[in-house]
């Protein structure tokens, strides 16, 4: 069974600070996705990383896929209250139609 | 373009009853996946359908079943409800294969079992 552990589980920081969320597994994934979920809504895709070592930037968010394609990180610079939400990583493998979701990181940005 | 629509949004059932949840995917999307989300277990994969065929199934008991219609709309059914079935049930559609494309999630159906 493939597992994705996210850390930290909860994070509460002041507006303007930087933060990093980690997503780790002992399994290799062909691609990894990051989603953000807000209360009362379904998850929304932020990014997909496919190549080991790949770095993608989305405004103040930087996503990195580990060289061995077993882990990933999400770094947010100058966090804003609008970044508040549940961040989920999800791993995928070719030939398997399901995504394995991480345990989630609940982020709260305090104004 | 309309998003993924799930009905009902909220429902309350008692133990032993059965429930049917509905999902209408984004127009043109042929793949529909179902997930169960709980605070303790997170998002757990239930099953995925493509062109009316179940392509993959998660590790849930046989009480959980689903189907997909020719118009890509999907339903899932849970029979003999247990307290532990209380959860947010999320449906997601994708244009291509879920493991390489983007999943578009609905807002979910929140089931409470008393």
Give me the Rg of chain A, rounded. Answer: 13 Å
**Count of helical segments of chain B?**
0
Report the biggest beta sheet of chain A as strand number plus sense, adding barrel if it closes.
Answer: 6 strands, mixed
* First-last Cα distance of chain B: 37 Å
Structural class of chain B: mainly beta
Helix and strand run of chain B: EEEEEEEEEEE
* Number of strand segments of chain B: 11
- Overall mean pLDDT score of chain A? 93
Order of helices and strands of chain A: EEEEEEEEEEE
Q: Largest inter-chain interface?
A: A-B, 25 and 26 residues
Radius of gyration of chain B: 13 Å
| Helix-strand category of chain A | mainly beta
Extended strand count of chain A: 11
Q: What amount of the residues of chain A lies in strands?
A: over 45%
Q: Using the alpha-carbon principal axes, give the shape of chain B.
A: globular
What is the end-to-end distance of chain A? Answer: 40 Å
Helix content of chain B: under 10%
DSSP strand content of chain B: over 45%
Query: Low-confidence spans of chain B: pLDDT under 50, at least 5 residues?
Result: none
Determine the fraction of residues in helical runs of chain A and give it as a percent range. Answer: under 10%
Keywords:
heterodimer, A: 111 residues, mainly beta, five-stranded antiparallel beta sheet, 0% helix, 52% strand, B: mainly beta, four-stranded antiparallel beta sheet, 11 strands, 53% strand
């Amino acid at each position: 069974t493939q597992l994705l552990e996210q850390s930290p589980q909860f994070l509460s920081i002041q507006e303007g600070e930087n933060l990093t969320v980690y997503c780790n597994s002992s399994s290799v994934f062909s691609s990894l996705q990051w989603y953000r979920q807000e209360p009362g809504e379904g998850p929304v895709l932020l990014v997909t990383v496919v190549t080991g070592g790949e770095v993608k930037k989305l405004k103040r968010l930087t996503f990195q896929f580990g060289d061995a394609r077993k882990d990933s990180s999400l770094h947010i610079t100058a966090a804003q209250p609008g970044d508040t939400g549940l961040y989920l990583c999800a791993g995928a493998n070719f030939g398997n139609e399901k995504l394995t979701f991480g345990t989630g990181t609940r982020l709260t940005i305090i104004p | 373009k309309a998003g993924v629509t799930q009905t009902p949004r909220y429902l309350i059932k008692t133990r032993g009853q059965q429930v049917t949840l509905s999902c209408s995917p984004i127009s043109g999307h042929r793949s529909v996946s179902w997930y169960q989300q709980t605070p303790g277990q997170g998002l757990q994969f239930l099953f995925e359908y493509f062109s009316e065929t179940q392509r993959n199934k998660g590790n849930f008991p046989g009480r959980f079943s689903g189907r997909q219609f020719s118009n890509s709309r999907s339903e899932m059914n849970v029979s003999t409800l247990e307290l532990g079935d209380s959860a947010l049930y999320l449906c997601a559609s994708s244009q291509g294969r879920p493991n390489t494309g983007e999943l578009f999630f609905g807002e979910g159906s929140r089931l409470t079992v008393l």
